[in-house]
Amino acid sequence: MKVFIAGIDGYLGWPLALYLNARGHSVAGIDNGYRRLLVREMGGGTITPIQGPIKRKNFARNMGIEFEMGDACGSMVDRFKKFKPDAIVHLAEIPSAPYSMAGFGECWLTFINNSKTTLNILWAMKDVCPEAHLVKLGTMGEYGTPDIDIPEGHFPVEFRNRLAMLPFPRQPGSFYHATKCADSINVELACKLWGLRSTDVMQGVVFGTRTDEMGNNEKLLTRFDIDECFGTAINRFCAQAVIEHPITVYGKGMQKRGFIPLRDSMQCLGIAIENPPEAGEYRVFNQFEGTYTLVSLARRVERIGASLGLKTEINYIENPRIEEEKHYYNPDCKELPRLGYRPTRAVTREITSVLQDLMKYKDRIEKFKDRLIPEVRWDGTKRKSERL
Amino acid sequence: MKVFIAGIDGYLGWPLALYLNARGHSVAGIDNGYRRLLVREMGGGTITPIQGPIKRKNFARNMGIEFEMGDACGSMVDRFKKFKPDAIVHLAEIPSAPYSMAGFGECWLTFINNSKTTLNILWAMKDVCPEAHLVKLGTMGEYGTPDIDIPEGHFPVEFRNRLAMLPFPRQPGSFYHATKCADSINVELACKLWGLRSTDVMQGVVFGTRTDEMGNNEKLLTRFDIDECFGTAINRFCAQAVIEHPITVYGKGMQKRGFIPLRDSMQCLGIAIENPPEAGEYRVFNQFEGTYTLVSLARRVERIGASLGLKTEINYIENPRIEEEKHYYNPDCKELPRLGYRPTRAVTREITSVLQDLMKYKDRIEKFKDRLIPEVRWDGTKRKSERL
User: Fold this and answer.
1) CB contact at 8 A, A321 and A237
2) Chain A residues with CB inside 8 Å of B73's CB?
3) I need a surface site. Which of A247, A314, A382, B275 has the fewest CB within 10 A?
């Protein structure tokens, strides 16, 4: 299949290009480089030594991957006309909740980038390739933490003795998550109005350093961020463990979320791509291996770290976010397993592999270690979180 | 109270300024003039001969209303600091479903204008006047036409033997309606995170030429649009009747919507402003007088027109929209009546008054009558609707 990846230079985009390429698909993609830019702007940097964009472009070309730096907010029409994609994977979004809460400018950049890219892709698909399949990356965070189970896609709502199949109500917890809700709404609408087909992937938090395609070639590595904005829970915990910095858990740490290793995120996206829905169908997949509380993950990292000789401890720090710290959480994940998704690794084994990989880059973690403690607070202020 | 109106030059904004001023409130507002511009761009024009922006500004100043032409997308911080509003009414949105479906450019302008204005107001409120009350105009169209009753605000959802209070699922039918959903999500979020207070008004279709404050002073009239993008059902039907043009109903005409006369929209917004919610509260009001099918309204306009000597007929034309043409529709409207809203006029009496007002401007309707038949189709094409 011909697969176009919007956001091909990102944490997920690059390994997805490698994964699909290895599976025999023809891959092209574009990226505006915002991830590199914004991480630097926040004072962070990738821990894995990834290639610069030009080197990566040439490297990709040698593998048969068309890698272009450019704006996916700009018209996609010409690119789709030229490439004739069977599937378009839309990863071209600024994916950070804290970044979107840092100020009006950051909030608005997140909104404009994410909405415009999504709308641009939809309008271009309508005009150029209405038969193509849009695999759009959503987030489990669109649902918030409701007090009931979270289904996939429409679910039965009974109200005053009538029944309707309706989309699950959205309760995002940050402006970033709100942009994702807006995008999901737009994609569903385009499927309904224009007969486009889409898989909307409500993904849990991804963690991990590698996929099988990377082997031992450092040039194939994907970026790995640990700063408060673009780093996420397990990845940051592992980086902390490697430099024997306390593992910092926000608040009580009983916040529960879905998590999935990077390699299985690739597996799932591949399954979605290779099993397109019918024309006009908008389907929703929840995508995670399991749900875990933050503190249970911190404890695993601490324990596995100890078995590798790393001495660390867990520190509870002020939660910069406004979120429930103890709540019911029971999302479905049935659609992907039904199509063949099987977790390749237990979380424990994947954490071991992350810790081992990161040991090589200890000095790079040290370099950015002041970015490990959050400053951006959901109440609109900025201040480093203190230990509780 | 000190009330700031974002979108003060619009169909609702201007009469709201007059209404609140007459009730003794101190009123200031801003408008970027997009409504004037976009109606012209679509080849339309207001039927009522409203003043140009500069004349209106001076006229407003003489009445004690601060009327500013400027961009509500730009920073509101300075304006809020200076004016110290108790309430902010956010009407500064491009309100047209067909406009948003006309092409990527129109779609994106609607998205960027509406989201940016909303986010700008929210961030400025957080920093300058977190105690103020945001009255934001939503639309009944955010709900779509679900097969169950539509409550106001959160409602009980029972799923797999658990119960949660959740926002009603949103199913917008156009990109314009999608922007409104995004705005509602952002406003609810800001209330939750920052303790702002807001009333989100899910308004039905407004119709009418006047409010009591306008008396017989033509200079006080608000704009009245009849083109396919900015004109809405009853207003367009009345304009058609006045020039004895067939009243054009989209499709079967059994689409049911909530409708409210302009004067009662003012009454309702006034009630919302004068009865603010608690800090941190996000409340939703559905706002309409009653629900009607399009064809029942067309028949009323035809009948009342006949009683005024106007000969017209109803033509069913191809529906340019993709929407259900026969559906269940039973939204609640309990919150506003609970606070004192009483419809001042029956729909029939209000239609009579619109027809009488419009007779004076027959030649202006004739001038724009080629804009009465829709061209923008929801499937992304453009073609005048034919008679069915």
Assistant:
1) no
2) none
3) A382
Confidence of residue A346 (pLDDT cuts 50, 70, 90): confident
Torsion A304-A306-A309-A312 (CA) sign: positive
* Residue A180, both tokens: 């994702």
Does CATH place domain B2-371 in 3.40.50.720? yes
Contacts of B77 (CB under 8 A, 6+ apart): B124, B127, B128
Residues A8, A336 contacting (CB under 8 angstroms): no
Give Cα B21 distance to the centre of its chain.
Answer: 20
Q: Interface pTM (ipTM) of the complex?
A: 0.97
Q: How far apart are CA B228 and CA B290, in angstroms?
A: 23
Query: Could you give the CA distance from residue A301 to residue A236 in angstroms, rounded to a whole number?
Result: 10
The single-letter DSSP state of residue A141 is G
Q: Which residues of B touch A111 (CB under 8 A)?
A: 115-116, 119
Which amino acid, one-letter code, is at B14? W
Q: Convert the pLDDT of each residue in A122-154 to its tens digit.
A: 999 999 999 999 999 999 999 999 999 999 999
**B379 interfacial to chain A (CB closer than 8 Å):** yes
The sign of the dihedral angle between the CA atoms of A141, A147, A152, A155 is: negative
Of B107, B123, B166, which has the smallest distance from its Cβ to A146's Cβ? B166
Lateral strand order in the sheet of A256-261: A205-207, A256-261, A290-293
What residue spans define the domains of chain A?
A: 2-371
A108, A157, A171: residue with CB nearest B116: A108
Calpha distance B257→B251 (Å, rounded): 15
CA A365/CA A367 separation, integer angstroms: 5
Residue A41 neighbours by CB under 8 Å, 6+ apart: none
